[in-house]
Design brief:
alpha/beta, five-stranded mixed β-sheet, about 30% helix
Length: about 290
């Protein structure tokens, strides 16, 4: 698996607006050296990232995007139980979201979470939908994919992709990302929904907390807000530090550390063959790279 020449980590955002402060990109080279931020003067938009992935991606790049590439399916046998139309796999889910949100600016996903057919499945603000839980009960932390349960067993605290509440919510980030994945269809394979190609670039889902854990950070201290903390974590991954002193925003530090982590672990066969990843799970829910 050590065939990739570049490792691009993308800290993603589902926030509103044309430019997202929460988006950060970092690139690590297989030849070595510290990871580097991929800067854009005015900041990154989701459309900018889509254009880069379509047109300007370096050859043989492993791309990691920090989002959920699908919604839970295995727990209920469907993404949206009690709905008459069954979506068979993740690409059909991406297509549905992108179609409903075609008029949303900046690759947003507000139309989907507001849609009367799908809003009952989400927790949105003070409104917990009637189908937020698998059994139809509107309680608890919501539904989880198999890979998210594997993350929890490793010491992380994942959130349901049906959760749209709070700073840690991942729902809108994942839904906007699914629009991007749909628009990349046929251009960039998404593992494990697509087989990992023998050559060329590929995209995987990442969870930056997994990189932080292997960088010597505790689950409750995954965020690095100083260059010194970042360089200490990079050293755990056998990567040169980025240098510098003092504060760094956690979006940048997450991307930098995760790019180095992808370089460090991508050759490990076990990362590509986790125990819980069945063919059915691969097609419907996908997987988080590095969740074992």
């Amino acid at each position: 698996m050590g065939r990739f020449n570049h490792f691009l980590a993308i800290d993603w955002s589902g926030a509103k607006g044309p430019v997202q402060k929460g988006i950060a990109l970092a690139l690590a080279d297989a030849a070595g050296g510290p990871p580097v931020l991929v800067e854009r003067g005015r900041g990154w938009s989701r459309a900018d990232v889509l254009a880069l992935l379509r047109e300007d991606l370096p050859d043989d790049t492993l791309v990691g995007m920090d989002l959920g590439i699908a919604l839970p399916f295995a727990d209920c046998g469907a993404y949206f139980p009690k709905r008459n139309v069954l979506l068979p796999d993740a690409p059909s889910l991406w297509a549905l979201i992108d179609d409903i949100c075609a008029g949303d600016p900046n690759l947003g996903a507000q139309s989907f979470v507001d849609h009367p057919e799908f809003a009952p499945y989400f927790r949105n603000g003070s409104d917990t939908g009637a189908h937020f839980g698998c059994d139809g009960a509107a309680h608890g932390r919501g539904r989880f994919r198999v890979t998210e349960r594997a993350q929890a067993e490793m010491g992380c605290k994942p959130y349901s992709n049906f959760n749209l509440v709070g700073a840690a919510q991942v729902g809108k980030s994942s839904l906007t990302g699914m629009r991007v994945l749909h628009q990349l269809r046929g251009r960039l394979p998404v593992w494990p929904i697509d087989p990992l190609p023998e050559r060329g670039s590929a995209l995987v889902e990442i969870y930056t907390s997994l990189a932080a854990l292997e960088g010597g950070r505790g689950a409750s201290k995954a965020k690095m807000r100083s260059h010194e903390e970042l360089d200490a974590a990079l050293a755990h991954l056998d990567s040169p530090g980025v240098g510098g002193h003092g504060p760094i925003d956690d979006h940048s530090s997450d991307a930098l550390l995760t790019a180095a982590w992808l370089r460090h672990v991508s050759h490990d066969h076990n990362r590509w063959s986790p125990a819980g990843l069945t063919r059915g799970i691969a097609q419907t829910e996908g997987w988080t790279f590095g969740a074992l």
